[in-house]
Amino acid sequence: MVKLGDMVKDKITGFEGLALEKSEYLNGCVQFEVQPKIDKEGKIPEPCHIDEQQLEVIEIADSNLVFVPRDSDPAITLGEEVKDTLLGFKGVAISRSTSISGYVQYDVQPKRDKEEKLPDSAYVSAMHLKIITKKASEKVKAKGGGKRNHPQRR
After folding, report:
1. Are 123 and 106 in contact (CB under 8 A)?
2. What is the per-residue pLDDT across 83-93, written as a single tens digit (0 to 9) for each?
3. What is the DSSP string of 110-140?
4. What does the angle CA 22 – CA 145 – CA 129 come to, to the nearest 5 degrees?
5. N or C: which end of the chain has fewer CB within 10 A?
6. The pTM is what?
7. Which of 113, 101, 85, 105 is nearest to 93 (CA)?
């Protein structure tokens, strides 16, 4: 089982790096953002999001480098309807991301608008979310999820 801060390797591609962020999705998929080490030119390579079951741990994390999430969110379960208490943004919590620094945020997907268009989801800090309705939708039973582009975070 991969933990934040572990050095990991993609079993298929050989891509290696540090597990910086864990993302859990409503459909059951769990992915880690993997950040490779600085390259020979001193540049920071782009991280990659990889499904957990595709990763193997090559070095266990130093527990002094990993912060325990503050988890100040009110025990939000994916699928619950939530509201951003600062901006009033409402929607269903469709994913939870926890970073190595302990920061927790949720991807919140609003319902379709009056024109039947699907608005973009937004990442919101767990500290600013309030549960509106318990368990708005059931978890989708699926394995894996493939690559997912992460939108701009708030």
Report:
1. yes
2. 999 999 999 99
3. PPP-TTS--PPPEEEEGGGEEEEES--SPPP
4. 45
5. N
6. 0.80
7. 105
